Amino acid sequence: MNTLTLDIVTPNGSVYNEDNAEIVVLQTTAGEMGVMHGHIPTVAPLKIGHIKVTKDGKSDYIAVTEGFAEIRREKINILVQSAESAEDIDLERAKSAKQRATFYLEGDKEDTDKKRAERALKRAENRIEVAKFK
Ligand code: ATP
């Protein structure tokens, strides 16, 4: 079976690399997208969510924030603000971030602060979900 190379890169450097992925499932702003070797080259915007990488019948889950996937026939490059493999997620940290964001959202702040808090809440909830795949 032909496989794919996957690289997940953030401003802090490479977070995940797999040279023999059988299928990579991305959560794009337009919905879920399964990518296998030979996919038509494209660029897809990603939403806060996870990337599922399957190899030898086993899957890895990586939490990601907003960014882009560059898809080529043999390779996917993911560029996102932050990414953590399920096993690297600090659950307590994510729970505290969720609490902080919820506190802001319940308060009487200006709109810009609310938008920021809403995104922080999404990141925290996403990490809490992905940590379940540890
Ligand atoms: P926090 O308020 O806890 O910093 P955040 O959503 O503001 O959360 P980000 O700005 O998305 O954090 O990420 C900053 C850095 O911290 C990134 O390198 C990211 O991978 C890492 N990070 C954030 N939250 C966690 C977590 N719960 N577990 C592991 N790494 C995390």
Automatic annotation (TrEMBL):
Gene (UniProt): atpC
Compartment list: Cell membrane
Name of the molecule in the record: ATP synthase epsilon chain
InterPro entries: ATP_F1_dsu/esu_C_sf (IPR036794), ATP_synth_F1_dsu/esu (IPR001469), ATP_synth_F1_dsu/esu_N (IPR020546), ATP_synth_F1_esu_C (IPR020547), ATPsynth_dsu/esu_N (IPR036771)
Coiled coil: 107-134
Subunit structure: F-type ATPases have 2 components, CF(1) - the catalytic core - and CF(0) - the membrane proton channel. CF(1) has five subunits: alpha(3), beta(3), gamma(1), delta(1), epsilon(1). CF(0) has three main subunits: a, b and c.
Pfam families named in the record: ATP-synt_DE (PF00401), ATP-synt_DE_N (PF02823)
Key words, A-Z: ATP synthesis, Cell membrane, CF(1), Coiled coil, Hydrogen ion transport, Ion transport, Membrane, Transport
Annotated function: Produces ATP from ADP in the presence of a proton gradient across the membrane.
